């Protein structure tokens, strides 16, 4: 599931400034900002991958990827399912027809 994607052509200088901006965000509070108001918090430990590939005689690509696993979300008290004990203690009615 994609959260955000942006592609554009920039100068090498602008690319360096963007990478510095990302690095500063990671170093300060670990949040990367994107789009108009989006942000994602990066875990303290991440898996990193650097791929440099020759696409053709004249084109080279560099991909930097990092990923992490977010901790499982804890359910709030009002989201919990009723316990099986509560279901077992509910009285059941037996009709004469059901008993025979």
From TrEMBL:
Domain Amphi-Trp: from-to ranges: 4-76
Basic and acidic residues biased stretches: 72-87
Name of a matching Pfam family: Amphi-Trp
Compositional bias annotation for Low complexity: 89-100
Region (Disordered): 71-100
Highest taxon above the source species: Bacteria
Record-given protein name: Amphi-Trp domain-containing protein
Organism: Micromonospora inaquosa
